[in-house]
# Entry
Amino acid sequence: MTASIISELANRSDSVQFTKEQKGILQRLTKFQRDVLLACARIPKGQTRTYAQLARSIGKPHSARAVGNALAINPLAPLIPCHRVVRSDGKLGGYSAQGGTKTKMSLLLAERRSI
# Structure
């Protein structure tokens, strides 16, 4: 991801609004995947949550790995900001978008600078 794209993403609004097409994409996912992605969409810019915190927030406290799997197939990244979810040990965890964890770190740093 280029620096200009990262900057644009970091400066956009925190409020996620889904188009009809995007809602259709979400409807094709399992309920669990949809719950994970919608919970992720509520993480404020400049903040992070752990996979375990996200699992607890959807009422599945023992499903941190499954949360990671759901985020790995996020069809609406970066609209749904899965880069804001990190490991409990403070490490970044994975990121399936182009550039991997380097892009994840760049997005997190850019968002923190923009708030």
Notes: Residues 3-114 form a domain with the Arc Repressor Mutant, subunit A fold (CATH 1.10.10.10).
